[in-house]
């Protein structure tokens, strides 16, 4: 049964990535979620603030920001009050892409609301949280 769970998560990941590529373009799901999350800030967050918001490491956010900078979606600039800090902001192209991303996510949320019961969604969240909190088979894998 657990093999089926792991297989289902892998299939879900691939399905989401493929849907995003078809709908939005050559961006990863994480990049798209990052753009959407960045648009929710009233002012440009620091990398640290954004990492906390995304619940991931500073280094991971820095890599994603660098990739999105190369694609012209975001700009990282030094904080005028504290030059050691980098603040992230959406470019005009990033804002346009984010509008498309948010429309796509809103449509997906509506589809899932119609397709999946609240009870099943709550169960999925519990399972996902348990996996995230565990060391997991990927985090503990070593060659």
Automatic annotation (TrEMBL):
InterPro entries: HTH_MarR-typ, MarR/SlyA-like, WH-like_DNA-bd_sf, WH_DNA-bd_sf. Residues 1-133 form the HTH marR-type domain. Transmembrane segments: none annotated. This is MarR family winged helix-turn-helix transcriptional regulator. The lineage of its organism: Bacteria, Bacillati, Actinomycetota, Coriobacteriia, Eggerthellales.
């Amino acid at each position: 049964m657990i093999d089926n769970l792991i297989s289902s998560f892998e299939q879900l990941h691939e399905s989401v990535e493929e849907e995003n590529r078809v709908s939005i373009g050559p961006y990863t799901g994480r990049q798209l979620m990052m753009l959407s999350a960045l648009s929710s800030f009233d002012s440009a967050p620091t990398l640290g603030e954004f990492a906390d918001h995304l619940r991931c490491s500073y280094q991971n956010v820095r890599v994603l920001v660098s990739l999105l900078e190369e694609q012209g979606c975001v700009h990282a600039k030094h904080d005028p009050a504290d030059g050691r800090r980098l603040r992230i902001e959406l470019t005009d192209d990033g804002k346009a892409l984010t509008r498309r991303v948010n429309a796509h996510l809103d449509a997906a949320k509506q589809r899932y609301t119609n397709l999946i019961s609240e009870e099943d969604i709550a169960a999925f969240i519990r399972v996902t949280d348990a996996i995230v909190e565990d060391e997991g088979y990927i985090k503990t894998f070593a060659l």
